[in-house]
Amino acid sequence: MAIRSHSQVRLCNAMHPKPLETVQPATADEAAQVFSKDRLKQQQSEDAVIEPVRRWILSPDLAPTESDLRTMDPDIQDLYAQRATLEVKDGVLYHQFLRATGEIDYYQVVVP
């Protein structure tokens, strides 16, 4: 997510190569609603790719076998292949970006 100005925020959707979505909240309250954890959780839970991966990160015993995974949507396969750098915090799936030292530099929300 790169902030271009105070009133314009661009959401990066790395898993689905589409144009970046531009969101222009009119107020700080609207900006908070766009990025609220509750809204992100809801949108992730409704996404056919993110929801199963988020569930598997939370409960690894529910994860599919490699052979079952190969029969699934390629986007699910791609996202789950990054599981070592995925983390669920407060019900929201994030991708960890690591420094060269292996420490977490920052988290990026996985956007539907």
Structure description:
The chain is α+β, with helices and mostly antiparallel strands. The protein has one domain (about 1-110). The chain has helices at about 30-35, 35-45, 50-60, 65-70, 75-80; strands spanning about 1-5, 10, 20-25, 85-90, 90-100, 105-110. The strands form 2 sheets. It has a 3-stranded antiparallel β-sheet, with no helix packed on it. Strands 4-5-6 form a 3-stranded antiparallel β-sheet. Mean pLDDT is about 80; it is low at about 1-20.
What's the multimeric state? Answer: single chain
Kindly provide the radius of gyration, computed on alpha-carbon positions and rounded to a whole number of angstroms.
Answer: 15 Å
In total, the number of domains comes to 1
User: What order do the helices and strands follow?
Assistant: EEEHHHHHEEE
> Separation of termini?
13 Å
The portion of residues forming beta strands comes to 25-35%
Count the E strands.
Answer: 6
**Largest sheet strand order:** 1-2-3
* Approximate shape: globular
Profile the largest sheet: 3 strands, antiparallel
Low-confidence stretches: 1-20
Mean pLDDT: 81
Helical content class: 25-40%
In DSSP terms, counting alpha (H) and pi (I) runs of 4 or more, how many helices? 5
Tell me the structural class: alpha+beta
